[in-house]
Amino acid sequence: MAVLAVVAVYFFLFANSGIPQPPVPSEGTVKDPILASTISNQIHNVNQSPTDLGLRLRLCMIYDANGLDTLAMDCYEQLTELVPDHPRAWYQIAHLHQREGDADLAMENMQLAASKAKDAQLPNWQLGQMQIAAGRPREALQTLELAREQLGDMPEFLLTTMQAHVDVGNHEKVIEIAASNDLVNSSVAPYVQRILAQAHEQLGNETEAANARLLAAQGAPQLVDSWMVEVAQQRADLSILQSRIAATMRAKKWAEAMNMLDLLHQYEKPSRETKLMEITCMAQSGSPEEALQKVEVMMADSPGDQQLILAKAAMQLQIGDLRQDPSQYEFVIEAVEPILDDNPGDLRAMAIYLRGLRLLGRTNEALAACRAAWASQPQQIGPLLVAADLIRTNDAWAGNDDLLRSLWMAQPNHPTAGAMLALSLAADGRVDEARMIVEDLNNASLDAEMLNKARDAVNAAQAP
User: Fold this and answer.
1) Residue 15 has pLDDT above 80, yes or no
2) How far apart are the first and last CA of the chain?
3) Is the dihedral of CA 125, 128, 133, 137 positive or negative?
4) On the chain, which terminus has fewer CB atoms closer than 10 Å, C or N?
5) How many angstroms separate the CA atoms of 462 and 15, rounded?
6) Nearest CA to 241 among 268, 206, 281?
7) What pLDDT sits at residue 383?
8) Are the beta carbons of 260 and 244 closer than 8 angstroms?
9) Cα distance between residue 312 and residue 289, in whole Å
């Protein structure tokens, strides 16, 4: 009802006098094409529905989120004139003043937002944070009390309250708040520990203070509320779109990523990086042949480009799978071998190479490649895991105890490494070593099937 009342007043005040146009950027101010388009579209929306408060607020937030502070300030101030009792514009103006370093004006406007927020207490939380930063913790405690009923269960809000109490000197209260709300197990636990360390130190609890310091994070987290998040979500430029494409690809949403790449290419000429992203999406969404053609076009200009060589090899693996064509795997091996000769630790090249060898059934060569990769980068356990899988899948136990021993030493609690090493030793006739290892395997997380297989192998080798 409160929102309806505000809108009703808004219509009444400006029905006869006319509603002002929103602030617009001067020509050439906005260089980024996506941002310029976003702003232009939103200005059009506002002009189409000039009495829609939400559309005007979103335009202000777009300016705000994208660093157009002067336009944002003009836009929010216009909203305060149009609808003086709405808290959002005052709230955002306060944050703009805070960004400019004017703490007094920031608190003054946040106080206005809080006075108009009715049951929405986010401005009081933000005002409390500002008062703490300004060295006024007693005022902050009074302000935060106004928001406690609505926000009191939020760990972030309680962290602010704890900081105010420790600044005032209410050290026992700090410890009480942390304990009663189990904040040491919350999302802000490292920052809670920092404040607890201060409180315990002032109370003379040296052991507790030292323990808290060990778990503490320095500084303070950025304590944001839903209104601040809403502004941040209005960020719109090429870099944001590129980040969203990368995130979409990590989520393996290939068709969605392709659509976003098409949008990106409307604003900028395709770069080498975005071409490779498009090729990856194309291949993963079921068109590896078309993706391969695009890679080959790029390779015409850069035939020795290793990234393109590996991209092509990945496409050939997919095509071989789809078409049941082993010749594609041969092409992959031939293309990737020179890269690994120069750099045996190239993990992407190694992964492609090993997959090609596995698909061709060339187990011994694959295991030799795993050895070379492990020797070049012993901190990388990936080659050992691949080797273990190859050995198990192909029953290639004999002669491979070095790989399995390295895996077992690197991961003593690995569910199968110890048992597999015992199998390898038994296959080589080293029964006493195998038996000693089997007898020492008693971790509850071990794979029972593999452990029983190792025991059977040792017992069979011992039998007369």
Assistant:
1) no
2) 91
3) negative
4) C
5) 99
6) 268
7) 87
8) yes
9) 10
In degrees and rounded to multiples of 5, residue 133 shows phi and psi of -65, -30
Residue 409 token pair: 């030493």
Q: How wide is the angle at C-alpha 189 spanned by C-alphas 201 and 214, nearest 5°?
A: 50
174 membership: H or E segment, kind and range = helix 171-180
Residue 17's pLDDT is: 56
**13 pLDDT more than 70:** no
**What are the tens digits of pLDDT across the range 257-302?**
989 888 888 878 888 888 888 988 988 888 888 888 989 999 998 8
The tens digit of pLDDT for each residue in 426-440 reads 999 999 998 999 888
CA dihedral 27, 31, 35, 36 (to 10 degrees): 30
Please write down the long-range contacts of 374-378, taking CB distance under 8 Å and 24 or more positions apart: 374/403, 374/406, 375/344, 376/343, 376/344, 376/345, 377/344, 377/345, 377/347, 378/406
pLDDT digits 0-9 by tens, 68-102: 999 999 999 999 999 998 899 999 999 999 999 99
267 Rama sector, left if φ>0, alpha if ψ -120 to 50, beta otherwise: alpha
- For residue 464, pLDDT over 70 is answered with no
Q: Which amino acid appears at position 184 of this protein?
A: V
Long-range contacts of 128-137 (CB under 8 A, 24+ apart): 128/160, 128/161, 128/164, 129/160, 129/223, 130/94, 130/98, 130/103, 130/106, 131/107, 131/164, 132/160, 132/163, 132/164, 132/167, 133/103, 134/103, 134/107, 135/167, 137/163, 137/164, 137/165, 137/167, 137/168
How far, in Å, CA of 399 to CA of 371, rounded?
Answer: 12
DSSP per residue over 413-428, as a string?
Answer: T-TTHHHHHHHHHHHT
How far apart CA 51 and CA 14 sit, in angstroms, is 9
Q: What angle do CA 234, 238, 243 make, to 5 degrees?
A: 80
Residue 391: closest CA among 419, 369, 418, 367: 367
The pTM of this model reads 0.63
- What are the contacts of 147-151 at 24+ separation with CB within 8 A? 147/121, 147/122, 149/121, 150/119, 150/120, 150/121, 151/121, 151/122, 151/125
Q: In this prediction, what percent of the chain has a pLDDT beyond 90? A: 48
DSSP 324: T
Would you state the structure tokens that stand for residue 106, as one six-digit string? 């920031």
Helical (H) or strand (E) element with 202: helix 189-203
The residues, ordered by sequence, that sit 6+ positions from 236 with a Cβ below 8 Å of its Cβ are 34, 35, 38, 62, 65, 66
What average pLDDT does the chain have?
A: 88
CA distances from residue 49 to 41, 46, 62, 350, 383 in whole angstroms, order as listed? 12, 5, 17, 59, 61
- What's the whole-number mean pLDDT along residues 52-65? 94
